[in-house]
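re: ur msg from earlier - yeah i can do the nickel (II) ion complex, just paste it... oh wait u already did. ok heres what im feeding in:
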Amino acid sequence: MVPLATANDNMNVPYDSAGQSTGSLPLFLVPDLEAVILTDEHSRIFTRHFEVPSIPAITRAQKELVHEQVEAFRAANVTDVGPGKIQFTELNMRSELTAASTGAIGIRVATYESTDFGRSTRSLTQWYDHNGSDVRGTRDLFGSHEDWAQFKEFVAQAATTDPRIFVGELLDLDDSWLDSVNFDLQGNALVEFDDGQIDATAEEPIIFKVSARNLAGLLSDFGTLARAASTSPSPRIQLGMLQDAGSRLPPVSTNTEPTLPTAAGSGVKLGPAPDEASPRNPVDCTVAKCVALTFDDGPGPKTDKLLDTLKDGNAPSTFFVTGPNAQLRPELLVRMAAEGHEVGNHTWNHRSLASMSSAQIRREIERTNAAITAAIEQPATLLRPPYGSHDSTSDRLASTPVILWDVDTLDWKYRDTEKVINTAVSQTSPGSIVLMHDIQSSTVAAVPRILSGLRAKGYTFVTVSELLAQSGLEAGASYSHGPRPPKPSPAPRGEVRYP
Ligand code: NI
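and the outut:
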């Protein structure tokens, strides 16, 4: 059993005691779960879904949901805004693990969408039952028709007595509205409504609680398993080992209990070791021909390989990590810091900051900094706003320099190694900041030849802070490139030049 009673930032539970979503259960509870990120930087689409090779039903259901919502989003954004104009719409989807055991898995998918028709947030929870071959919904958590009707009545009562909402009579709840039900640590049911369903003016999803006491007797066998997987999550073991299809979970041997992938347990030394790391000679990029390679959205499954390449090529770089990925792979942040790279903040949810409230922006930055600090004992030194979307408010809240770019490899779009190499090598000029994404394997494959190509042109690889060290780097200011050193004079004095 994983001790969730001492839940903290490292062991995020999905909801706090007030029923507020605080994130996700640690993903290692489902050993072969992979968090897959898909992006479209131009349409501002960012999705993070789960794939579990040993449970194809989850992979299928998650992919279908993403596909469905992305297609609907694209279809709703048919406005022709004309060449050269940017359309500020956004789709952000993220999956969170809310329950995990050998018997049940709960995955909540939260969606934020901003289109020509307005903004909305919504959520849906997919349940996996190890006895079934497909993913289940809320209705499967409950027993008979009467049990379900009784549950709906409790929800309607909670809605009726909620001070935020005025309804004169007991709400008649549409079954489809109840598509996201999870459990808190006390075993209460948390029923999440999309905005617009209950209160048209709500900016955030509305959550109603049905107490564990009221739920007694209403849950199906699977619902009971699902609730136990939420209140006492346990590491999942191989499906084939489960002979007992009953409701009792087999005890998990302490020998097989996985540990949180903390930096301390990774076998990598925490933080840079000053006596081992050879300090580089400072480079003055107002004189030398420098380039800062930057990698966003990771660390991902290929980042380890990228770090090997950068180490071999002696190319200090800058990684703008998202909070969930920093939390998922802290050992890679430790490696980045130890090998002379810079770690920057790329926010938690990868939302466009310019469309968020100050409180939301602060939370995006601080949560991510907490995950970075947990790994390398220091917060991010830089911020890269997702999509490069920033304004004076987000710049002020950044409390670090805000880093954009001048060379966009469009690696997320083409996912073509040759194109990434050509763009990075041909478009880089002295002082460039090059945008790439280490979650793209085509990009990771391109880096060896980007290094050799740029080195052949006389470039020195530096981190972003090194690039801007001499020309000035201020918190709250934004930068898209470093100093452009003067070109050496074209011809020595006295030489006669002919036209
Ligand atoms: Ni990004």
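cool cool. The first helix runs from residue 56 to 75. ping me if u need the other ligands too
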